[in-house]
Task: structure prediction
Amino acid sequence: MSGPRTPDPLALVIFGATGDLTRRKLLPAVYRLFLGGLLPADFAVVGFGREEMSDDDFRARMRAALEEHAEAPDAARWEAFAPRLTYLGVGFEPEGFGKLREHLEGLGAAAGNRLYYLAVPPNVFSGVVENLGRAGLAKPPDERGWTRVVVEKPFGRDLESARRLNAELLRVFDERQVFRIDHYLGKETTQNLLVFRFANVIWEPLWSRNHVDHVQITVGETVGVERRAGYYDQAGALRDMVQSHLLQLLTLVAMEPPASYDADSIRSEKVKVLRSVRPMAREAVAREAVRGRYAASRRGNVPGYLDEEGVPAGSRTETYAALRLFVDNWRWAGVPFYLRTGKRLCDRATEVVVRFRPAPHPIVDLVEGDDPVPNTLVLRIQPNEGISLWFEAKVPGLVGRLQPVSMDFDYTSFGVESPEAYQRLLLDAMLGDATLFARRDEVESAWTLVTPILEAWAEGGEPEPYPAGSWGPEGADRLLEQDGRRWRAP
Result:
């Protein structure tokens, strides 16, 4: 992961510049990098889209986006930032890319290095990349500058489509130029998993099947599909969350220490984890995977998924997914990893729970009864970012009793505001640091695990209903209960 270096002069070209992602995330991230002095003196942001508007209209729209999603710029800062924003409303046909080439050539020093950001629907990715190649805008690195492309998720719908998209990208760009983004990897608390594991020697002797009973990874959302039904109904929880975010967290928890901390060494260790995950045979899906769909709840008058605006009648898309996975290598053999994610759950929480094995010898002579709770390490990714370690202590008194207590660390104790994920990821892409971006084999390995589950679910059956505002379907509880375990409530 890079330090606070300043990138070379560059032009950031945002395809889909009038869309929601640009307004909510990308432009605010660029503006905060600018305020932090992390951008070069010569940089430009070129918006590219279908809608016709002038540069001034685009600037006004982006200023409104900053006021809504970041902070209202004062006059002096806006006067320094606004001239760097330009816009091309030429559409995505081949001739529009010729006009983009002419526009970039007129930007001076900023035009030597180019970062293309594909903030467009997945069905547009291939056309944009092909037209960049035809227009001569995808040159490999040379002494005159570099070119890189950032691709948003979802990266494919299954293994076959991901391979096809990779092939299309790599016909135009070299793998070193492709940055496949997963915003979860830009979160400070996600990055801290690497630091927590490999900068603290006390964990290494415990971080294996010898001491860990199981691992839980939870990504819970309280919101429903909101205005994204068109996208979400084509994706579902397994594609939208498990294939990317949850499997990324699993790799950071389970990976071996890399030989060095450069991008490829770290990513190679993550790929080794994914390739070690036991494939889920078709006949095992019903036993090892649970899919659910939120139903209406009278509490808060919340509609069920099938009643949400834009959801087609008869949809069988899941809004909840839970899996039991095994990493078949020397470190983790026999240790189950339980993953769950869902919408309309009772709490918003992303956390990793490492549950250690119970104490092997009774201490009944010291305390009344003998039922110690196993030690638990909780890594809270969001919200209330922090780390808690739970252990047993004796309650003071003549008759001893055990009680779980915790040592807690809160990220607010640093007194520093964490940057938004897109700030970190955009800066790293500008610097050419691919540590927090997925490599081709990483993406395809993740889809290799998920695709058999998708195929089994596509054969029939309905997702198990769960009340909106609960922790999901009963089947997810049974997934752990059959092993004598239960989910930790965040």
Observations:
- The two ends are 30 Å apart (CA to CA).
- The CA atoms of residues 16 and 119 lie 5 Å apart.
- The first helix runs from residue 20 to 35.
- The chain has a mean pLDDT of 91.
